[in-house]
Amino acid sequence: PIILAIESSCDETAVAILRGRPGGPAAILASEIASQIELHRVYGGVVPELASRNHSLHLRPLVEQVLEHAGVTVEDIDAYSATSGPGLASSLLVGATAAKAMAAAAGRPFLAINHLEGHLLSPFVGLGEVPPHVALIVSGGHTLLLDVEGPGRYRKLGTTRDDAAGEAFDKVAKMLGLPYPGGPEIEKTAMGGRPTAFDFPRSMLKDRSFDFSFSGLKTAVLYTLTDRHPESGTPRPEDLPDLCASFQQAVIDVLVTKTLKAARHAGRGTIALSGGVSLNSTLRRDFQRACEQAGYRLLTADPGLCTDNAAMIGFAALLRHAEGRSSPLSEPIDPNLPLARP
Ligand code: ATP
Ligand code: FE
Ligand code: MG
């Protein structure tokens, strides 16, 4: 089957067309993203009203583009899918309404997809199947550890009690005077720094739960800044690399340790990483090393599938479609849509 997918949960408008075949990898025929990062940068974060207006502006041209790139027409599309949550209500509404309208007009099924399920499944697009594993989703709004039995069978093991990992990167970057989004900026700046220069806390490592906490780390960076630079609170440029490298390493140490512990606890031999923070090359390197040492197979998503995109939504829809399932056109969007219960 051929599926058209729309992602508009936050500040990226994305449309993709995928072809699936039973038991085989999915082919991404086309995948386009209109990023609004530049638009929101001056505000230091996403402005919901601006975001939804821009989704409306970009969606139709993007749909036409992917149809052209994929070399298919509307008649070839077997099902339409869109992200139905979690995310910004006004943003979700644009994509979901458009997908429903196209599905209704074409008389094809509609599939509502959880954005986090899209992230979760993104490392498996090239595989086409989803083996049992422990998943770590590290994105701008979520830090989730899950035990995955197979598609649609998710058990939550742990989550963050305060900031998400990506959110911590973004907030610390802002404190350091680096532009939004902070993750890539911190990674770049950390290249020339020493990860041991500052002894930042590794929160909840000894805790028996699989939960995370990153706000203490954020506060520790802030205290270091105001201690050393009481007059301005902003670091001297020569301190930035050490600060970034030490902060980044503290986040990574906690993520690696807890995820491997969760895999051991769940009795899984495979670990999968997804979400924007999983683009971080130091994080990938440290996970790779730890997994090799402990004998786990590590799967990561292709770089283009880590941050928000529609191909991951289309892949989740393909798996759902293969089970013969679809969503009613009355399916609501849900800004707080949960992925799994404990
Ligand atoms: P959610 O999926 O939870 O709603 P989101 O879709 O905004 O959030 P993603 O698009 O998956 O999140 O990822 C964006 C986040 O990833 C941002 O917080 C960004 O700073 C972070 N990020 C991107 N690249 C890197 C990197 N190289 N290192 C660390 N963090 C990164
Ligand atoms: Fe996301
Ligand atoms: Mg984003």
UniProtKB/TrEMBL annotation:
Q: Which CDD domains match?
A: ASKHA_NBD_TsaD_bac
Q: Where does Fe cation bind?
A: H115, H119, D308
Gene3D superfamilies under this entry?
Answer: 3.30.420.40
User: How are cofactors bound according to the entry's free-text note?
Assistant: Binds 1 Fe(2+) ion per subunit.
Q: Which InterPro entries match?
A: ATPase_NBD, Gcp-like_dom, KAE1/TsaD, TsaD
Under catalytic activity, the entry for this protein gives: L-threonylcarbamoyladenylate + adenosine(37) in tRNA = N(6)-L-threonylcarbamoyladenosine(37) in tRNA + AMP + H(+)
Amino-acid positions noted as binding substrate in the UniProt annotation, renumbered to this chain: I137, V138, S139, G140, G141, D170, G183, E187, N280
Q: Does the keyword tRNA processing apply?
A: yes
Cofactor list: Fe(2+)
**Residue ranges of domain Gcp-like in the record:** 28-314
**UniProt main location, coarse:** cytoplasm
Spell out the Pfam families in the cross-references.
Answer: TsaD
Q: Where in the cell is it found?
A: Cytoplasm
Q: What is its EC number?
A: 2.3.1.234
**Which UniProt key words apply to this protein?**
Acyltransferase, Cytoplasm, Iron, Metal-binding, Transferase, tRNA processing
Which family does the record assign?
Answer: Belongs to the KAE1 / TsaD family.
Functional summary from the UniProt entry = Required for the formation of a threonylcarbamoyl group on adenosine at position 37 (t(6)A37) in tRNAs that read codons beginning with adenine. Is involved in the transfer of the threonylcarbamoyl moiety of threonylcarbamoyl-AMP (TC-AMP) to the N6 group of A37, together with TsaE and TsaB. TsaD likely plays a direct catalytic role in this reaction.
The protein depicted here goes by the name: tRNA N6-adenosine threonylcarbamoyltransferase
What is the scientific name of the source organism? Haloferula sargassicola
Q: Recall the taxonomic lineage recorded for the source organism.
A: Bacteria, Pseudomonadati, Verrucomicrobiota, Verrucomicrobiia, Verrucomicrobiales
